[in-house]
């Protein structure tokens, strides 16, 4: 193609742009480039949907112990960790609410490669949070990346192998035995080929809660190869070994004791040794080939992981899951109406989990059949053995039309065919949630199988119109379908796939000293999957429909220009979420199952009001400071709306740093005012409440040397 820059030239342009954006940051924000919404590079103000970008300037001011540190304060995204480690629970516009732990219904990607399973579960164990250049959040259904996910897509973009400005050594230590070690070194030849080696170690005793320590060790090797002026190949091979203890929830009495002392000494479950230990090998390869009239972008990836996961009632031992897949993308610029662009491609992925086993706990104290307490997480009697295979076959198309400089139209869809196959052997012994112990029923075991397939159609049409150099209007109409995950289907094989339809309008503003994003949306979900908690067990049902209405605002402004030395920028983020069951008959278990009409009730755990304020200060001497305070409004504890939790107000974090030459030292304080609060409160159908506490104040000191 005449005039098309070579990958080497493109690389120079990207690096120059990054350097320029850093230089311009003192005068105000530059509009960041994103790829997650459309698969094509585009400044965020032109994307006709709600998207949030957490760039390097923000990431450098965070501890980055987990992804929560970066995403806190993003309107429409509720994210917390109940263990204080790398595990997170995330809800995006209500999607992910049903998850007991982890991240569901939201597609997470790393450099364009999905790290979310076909049944929508995402494991964060192998994400090196110190090796992140940018995080992009696309909210709502219809995302071109999001196979089988209604909550949108979150893409984690790692530091480029071609960017030697990110080479560094970082050492951090803090309270509760927290340690953070990170090193990155890259090498580049005269021809532009590159290698980068990254190693990270994270550890914390977290002894403010019992059984709450974790440790993670990671090693990554990236390569970049430029065989000619029109081809670029990047690969990454990483290894992770992670150990995570899970402390469990508390009763109300235990939570009140925590509020008095700042420590959790016990949980509300007889299972005292829950954990998730994992070992992961991850490989991905990304090729960009400029073939003149189009660009070919194939991705090939492989992921092998194993884990040891003691939970309530059983110990899951997964010896090895093999995941491999490819994403074949073609980008075709053309001029149907103007400077237009067509993106299309196909996806294939297969997950194989063979020989997964579940054991009873060996070391327990009982009273009759009831388990009173576990003494270790050593496995005992084999309860279950399972083989599982999941497949995804999909294709996507998106046309971007730009008739003039002001108007942009995106129209496209994804279609995915997802199959879930399970073959299970179970013994005559199983954990009975109602009795709270192991029971043996002769002849109740044997072989069973599950075989379900889902066809998911996710179309989207978006329009943006540039009013002038500062303001852009947008509208977005989208649909997404959500595949039930395997454990839900085990609970209820008749579950249907939910369908979410959303309409969104908004206004984006960009200027040298201020910026903002404002949007409102209406979303309806048919057959939404609801989790019902009864006696510690989770049962899943389809609700008839739910209605979701929301308003989100995110903005910042530079203040006191010329009146104080340096730059001071104030920010405010807010989300209003009104989510109700339009039609839902909840089956309450216990004795004989009974139906209860919950139509018109609010969805639990989702606060109507969430807001966050922040201030960023930069002094010419190299001193920087960032303070952020987050508030989570009250919410109902259950589907019946019998009780509310008040949430929390102004939980504050502070980071102060000083940089001179290649040296940077920073002090980070989480929960600055040492508030005693709960990050999650639930109430089951029997009326029993459970509390997960927020972490107390913690201080961490870090030193970074940039090579």
UniProtKB/TrEMBL annotation:
Its main location: membrane. It is found in: Cell outer membrane. PROSITE patterns: TONB_DEPENDENT_REC_2, TONB_DEPENDENT_REC_3. The keyword Iron applies. It comes from the Bacteria. Residues 45-153 form the TonB-dependent receptor plug domain. A motif (TonB C-terminal box) lies at residues 690-707. GO terms for cellular component: cell outer membrane. GO terms for molecular function: siderophore uptake transmembrane transporter activity. Residues 1-25 form the signal peptide. Residues 229-672 form the TonB-dependent receptor-like beta-barrel domain. It is a multi-pass membrane protein. Keywords: Cell outer membrane, Ion transport, Iron, Iron transport, Membrane, Receptor, Signal, TonB box, Transmembrane, Transmembrane beta strand, Transport. PANTHER family: FERRICHROME IRON RECEPTOR-RELATED, FERRICHROME OUTER MEMBRANE TRANSPORTER_PHAGE RECEPTOR. Belongs to the TonB-dependent receptor family. This is TonB-dependent receptor. It comes from Neptunomonas marina.
């Amino acid at each position: 193609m005449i005039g098309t820059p070579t990958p080497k030239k493109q690389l120079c342009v990207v690096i120059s742009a990054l350097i320029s954006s850093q230089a311009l940051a003192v005068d105000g924000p530059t509009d960041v480039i994103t790829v997650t919404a459309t698969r094509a590079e585009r400044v965020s103000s032109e994307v006709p949907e709600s998207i949030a970008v957490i760039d390097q300037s923000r990431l450098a001011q965070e501890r980055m112990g987990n992804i929560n540190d970066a995403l806190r304060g993003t309107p429409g995204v509720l994210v917390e960790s109940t263990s204080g480690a790398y595990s997170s629970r995330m809800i995006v516009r209500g999607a992910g609410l049903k998850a007991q732990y982890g991240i569901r219904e939201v597609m997470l990607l790393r450099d364009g490669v999905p790290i979310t399973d076909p049944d929508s579960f995402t494991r964060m164990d192998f994400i090196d949070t110190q090796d992140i250049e940018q995080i992009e959040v696309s909210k709502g259904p219809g995302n071109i990346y999001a196979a089988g996910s209604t909550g949108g897509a979150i893409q984690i973009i790692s530091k480029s192998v071609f960017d030697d400005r990110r080479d560094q050594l970082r050492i951090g230590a803090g309270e509760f035995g927290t340690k953070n070690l990170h090193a990155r070194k890259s090498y580049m030849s005269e021809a532009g080929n590159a290698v980068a080696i990254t190693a990270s170690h994270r550890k914390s005793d977290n002894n403010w809660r019992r059984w709450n320590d974790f440790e993670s060790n990671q090693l990554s090797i990236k390569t970049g190869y430029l065989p000619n002026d029109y081809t670029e190949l990047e690969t990454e091979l990483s290894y992770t070994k992670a150990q995570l203890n899970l402390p469990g929830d508390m009763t109300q009495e235990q939570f009140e004791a925590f509020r008095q002392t700042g420590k959790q000494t016990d949980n509300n479950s007889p299972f005292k040794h829950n954990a998730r230990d994992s070992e992961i090998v991850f490989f991905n390869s990304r090729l960009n080939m400029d073939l003149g009239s189009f660009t070919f972008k194939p991705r090939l990836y492989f992921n092998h992981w194993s884990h040891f996961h003691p939970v309530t009632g059983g110990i899951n031992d997964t010896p090895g899951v093999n995941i491999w897949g490819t994403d074949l993308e073609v980008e075709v610029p053309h001029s149907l109406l103007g400077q237009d662009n067509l993106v299309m491609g196909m996806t294939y992925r297969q997950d194989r989990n063979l020989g997964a086993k579940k054991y009873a706990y060996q070391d327990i104290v009982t009273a009759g059949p009831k388990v009173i307490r576990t003494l270790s997480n050593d496995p005992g009697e084999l309860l279950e053995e399972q083989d599982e295979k999941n497949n995804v076959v999909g294709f996507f198309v998106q046309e971007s039309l730009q008739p003039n400089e002001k108007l942009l139209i995106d129209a496209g869809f994804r279609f995915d065919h997802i199959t879930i196959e399970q073959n299970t052997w179970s013994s005559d012994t199983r954990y009975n949630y109602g009795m709270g112990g192991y029971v043996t029923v002769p002849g109740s075991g044997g072989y069973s199988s599950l075989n379900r397939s889902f066809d998911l159609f996710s179309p989207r049409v978006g329009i943006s119109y540039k009013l002038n150099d500062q303001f852009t209007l947008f509208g977005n109409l989208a649909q997404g379908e959500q595949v039930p995950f395997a454990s839900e289907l085990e609970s209820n094989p008749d579950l249907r796939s939910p369908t979410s339809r959303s309409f969104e309008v908004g206004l984006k503003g960009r200027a040298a000293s201020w910026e903002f994003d404002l949007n409102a949306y209406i979303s309806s979900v048919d057959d939404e999957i609801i989790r019902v908690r009864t006696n510690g067990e989770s049962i899943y049902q389809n609700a008839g429909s739910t209605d979701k209405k929301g308003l989100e605002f995110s903005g910042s402004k530079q203040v006191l220009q010329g009146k104080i030395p340096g730059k001071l920028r104030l920010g405010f983020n807010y989300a209003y979420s009104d989510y109700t069951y339009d039609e839902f008959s909840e089956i309450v278990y216990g004795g004989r199952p009974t139906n209860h009409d919950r139509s018109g009730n609010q969805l639990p755990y989702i606060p109507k009001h969430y807001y966050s304020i922040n201030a960023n200060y930069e002094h010419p001497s190299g001193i920087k400071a960032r303070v952020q305070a987050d508030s989570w409004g009250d919410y109902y504890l259950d589907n019946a709306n019998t009780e509310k939790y008040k949430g929390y107000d102004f939980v504050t974090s502070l980071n102060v740093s000083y940089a001179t030459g290649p040296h940077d030292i920073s002090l980070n304080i989480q929960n600055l005012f040492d508030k005693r609060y709960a990050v999650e409160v639930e109430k089951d159908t029997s009326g029993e409440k459970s509390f997960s506490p927020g972490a107390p104040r913690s201080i961490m000191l870090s030193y970074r040397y940039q090579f």
